[in-house]
Amino acid sequence: MKEKLLALKEELASSIKGCVSIEEVESIRINALGKKGEITAVLKGMKDLSDEERPLIGKIANEVREELEELISAKKGELKNAEKLVKLSAETLDVTMPSKQIRIGRRHPITQVFDELKYIFTGMGFKVAEGPEIETVHNNFDALNAPKNHPSRDMSDTFYFDENMLLRTQTSPVQVRTMQVMKPPIRIISPGRCFRSDTPDATHSPMFHQLEGLVVDKNVTMAELKGTLQAFAELFFGPGTKIKFRPHNFPFTEPSAEVDVTCFKCGGKGCSMCKGEGWIEILGAGMVHPNVLRNCGIDPEEYSGFAFGMGVDRATMLKYEIDDIRLLFENDMRFLNQF
Ligand code: DAH
Prior knowledge:
Subcellular location: Cytoplasm
Helix content: 40-55%
Main location: cytoplasm
GO cellular component, one term: cytoplasm
Bound molecules: 3,4-dihydroxyphenylalanine
Domain Aminoacyl-transfer RNA synthetases class-II family profile: 110-330
Keywords: Aminoacyl-tRNA synthetase, ATP-binding, Cytoplasm, Ligase, Magnesium, Metal-binding, Nucleotide-binding, Protein biosynthesis
Shape: rod-shaped
């Protein structure tokens, strides 16, 4: 019996050594040491042994079982390690490889200027009002007192959908929309996109941006308009900036003015930026025409108001010294990353 046990041990030990998978080792373990295993069967046969032989054989059997158990667990450990190595080498990570470039976006210069304008005017008590880019001819022209024969209404100057709808040519229709739903006191600015059928060049784009302003209340005078724009000019272009009103004509204001600021580059002496003038035109403004107030259901005998409209692309170009409006809309990251 002793020989049988030792032979069985040798045989099992060599097959354990030859195993290439943990499953194989496990099946050998079950076949040898399991309930119905070969070693177990030998041990079960011990009851037939004599009293002298039994402790001897029992000792050998226990040693054989222990040795086999050790071999099995060592082999399992070895195979587990090998598996891990295979897995690791399949998943190698080259830490010297260049990483993916993560580009952080930034706000477009026009958006930055709009944000700054909103900050300045909301600080003076203005609220931000929005209007649609697709407007009625009525809001864009008629309600704003723009006569039927005004050149800006021409088919070749404006994008019409049909005779009643168009792409707004200015943010001024937001004045109309606001006055139709709000009672004075009204103090709003309205940033937005406008459209005119212009051929693109360095200073023209068929799509551009404006900031509209409107104040309607009792006893509003041109002094408030001047004070507001003076405060704005200093905040936006820098301390010491002066403003100048030049008489002009807009259908929706009376009197009307074009407003210039002292050149913020030369301070008014004259340079290439202001073309030697010392002044730069930045917006149109005026006192809201009584017809406009009336068209929007506000009594011009009781209320008066002022309005202004600024070209935001132009303001952005001046502020950042951009010499071609088209650069703003090409979305070339090399350009945009500079702001
Ligand atoms: N809407 C005018 C334009 O596009 C700009 C403008 C001028 C707006 C005078 C105003 C204003 O509100 O009072 O040329």
